[in-house]
Amino acid sequence: MHILVTGASGFVGRTLCATLTRAGHKVTRAVRRDDGRPDTVVTGELGASCEWLDAVECPDVIVHLAARVHQMKEAPTEAERLHRLANTEGTLMLARRACERGVRRFVFISTVKVNGEGARRAYRSDDPPQPADAYARSKAAAEAGLMEIGARSGMEIVVIRPPLVYGPGVAGNFASLLNWVRRGRPLPFGAITRNRRSLVSVDNLASFIQRCIEHPDAAGAIWMVSDGEDVSTAELLRRMARALGKPARLWWVPPALLHALVALTGRRAVMRRLCGDLYVEVSDARRTLGWTPPMTLDEGLRRCAE
Question: For the whole model, what pTM was predicted?
Answer without folding.
Answer: 0.92
